[in-house]
């Protein structure tokens, strides 16, 4: 963005930098910075984080990897035509989109790529380091917003691309966030490497719609001592995410996180499944329908149904901006390892935090306080430059 070079700036390196979520992140950050729109949906812009010394939105610099070549301004045009971005915003921030576009490097592996895993990790890490150094950034947060991958094939199988990127983030000394259900840092190879570093990381799979509701409603049934007999869900969505999730193996990775929240909040796994249907005509708009069968006093049978109609990228982008700022500040404050206090944002959070949204919000509030620099301006123990 256009902040003075003398101010410390933070890099945000997006894996999947030409996707819908990434394009909405870059466009939205520029639009909010320019005062064109309020920061609706950004928890880091609420009083909870006043005084937590998070990097300003105007001090974020974007780059990333993608395997597609479509320029970011063109992606923003398509999102505007689809009604995801409001008319006029993409053209108002065309300079910021072009600047981010110049910082997108070709990712991988793509078909015909002859590089082995070690070489890919080295190349990705070099790209991230080069970006950080050229822009004289204080630090760079790596955030995975690439297409959902199927679960990897177990011991001996090739490392999934998300894990190669996670290893590259560690190699480049960057805090890491996995906003997708892909394995990333969860793969044993990356988890072992992460333990050897002091880098903070968070994930996985942003909680933006159906699972957000489940994290509120699950605790309600448990606290009211109502017996949930079955909880079934259907999602209809299009866009790149809908196409990726048409692959049953990728959908299975996504659904595991949606089901975990029920097991964790109800203490039991009710009957019922989650289905994801690719409906290209819906574009980025998702309809999520949940049908909850429960028993009341004397076994009286009842039903709750919810219908969530959301624009996926508009729901995800403010969370990605929040996470970039929080992970950067956590790194600066000397926090290390899995950031369990960020469970508020994820379907399948790292660490051993609570599963109910209310308790996750309490944990996030406590984190906001822990990130406050000590009064008087001296550096807290463990604080990094
Ligand atoms: N939007 C939401 O509400 C939400 C919520 C939770 C998670 N997510 C996850 O965010 C991710 C992005 O969603 P989206 O709607 O932007 O999808 P998208 O299909 O629009 O974008 C994904 C991008 O990833 C790129 N990509 C694929 N493989 C790559 C690789 N190996 N290296 C680099 N780039 C690669 C694609 O080219 C594409 O540009 C998905 O995994 C989705 O499940 C989204």
Automatic annotation (TrEMBL):
GO molecular function, one term: inositol-3-phosphate synthase activity
Domain Myo-inositol-1-phosphate synthase GAPDH-like residue range list: 209-313
GO biological process: inositol biosynthetic process; phospholipid biosynthetic process
Alphabetical list of InterPro entries matching this protein: Myo-inos-1-P_Synthase, Myo-inos-1-P_Synthase_GAPDH, NAD(P)-bd_dom_sf
Pfam families the UniProt entry points to: Inos-1-P_synth, NAD_binding_5
Family of the protein in this entry: Belongs to the myo-inositol 1-phosphate synthase family.
Name of the protein described by the UniProt record: Secreted protein
Organism encoding this protein: Streptomyces zinciresistens K42
């Amino acid at each position: 963005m256009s902040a003075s070079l003398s101010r410390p700036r933070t890099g945000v390196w997006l894996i999947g930098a030409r996707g819908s979520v990434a394009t909405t992140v870059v466009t939205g950050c520029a639009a909010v910075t320019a005062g064109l729109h309020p920061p609706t949906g950004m928890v880091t812009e609420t009083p909870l984080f006043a005084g937590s010394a998070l990097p300003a939105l105007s001090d974020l610099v974007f780059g990333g990897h993608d395997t597609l070549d479509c320029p970011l301004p063109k992606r923003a045009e398509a999102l505007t035509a689809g009604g995801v971005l409001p008319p006029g915003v993409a053209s108002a921030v065309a300079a910021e989109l072009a600047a981010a576009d110049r910082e997108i490097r070709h990712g991988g592996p793509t078909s015909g790529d002859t590089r082995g895993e070690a070489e890919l990790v080295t190349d990705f890490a070099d790209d991230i380091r080069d970006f950080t150094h050229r822009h004289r950034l204080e630090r760079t947060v790596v955030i995975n917003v690439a297409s959902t991958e199927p679960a990897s094939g177990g011991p001996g199988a090739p490392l999934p691309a998300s894990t190669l990127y996670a290893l590259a983030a560690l190699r480049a000394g960057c805090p890491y966030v996995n906003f997708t259900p892909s394995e990333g840092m969860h793969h044993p190879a990356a988890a072992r490497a992460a333990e050897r570093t002091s880098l903070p990381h968070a994930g996985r799979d942003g909680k933006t719609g159906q699972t957000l509701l489940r994290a509120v409603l699950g605790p309600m049934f448990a606290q009211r001592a109502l017996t949930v007999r079955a909880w079934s869900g259907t999602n209809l969505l299009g866009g790149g995410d809908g196409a990726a999730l048409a692959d049953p193996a990728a959908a299975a990775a996504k659904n595991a996180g949606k089901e975990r929240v029920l097991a964790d909040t109800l203490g039991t796994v009710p009957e019922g499944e989650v289905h994801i249907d690719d409906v290209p005509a819906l574009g980025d708009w998702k309809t999520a329908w949940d049908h909850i069968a429960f028993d009341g006093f004397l076994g009286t049978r009842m039903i709750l149904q919810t219908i969530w109609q959301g624009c996926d990228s508009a729901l995800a982008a403010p969370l990605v901006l929040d996470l970039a700022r929080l992970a950067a500040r956590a790194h600066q404050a000397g926090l290390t390892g899995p950031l369990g206090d960020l469970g508020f944002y994820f379907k399948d959070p790292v660490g051993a935090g609570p599963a109910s949204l209310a308790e996750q919000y309490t944990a996030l509030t406590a984190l906001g306080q822990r990130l406050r620099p000590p009064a008087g301006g001296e550096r807290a123990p463990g604080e990094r430059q």
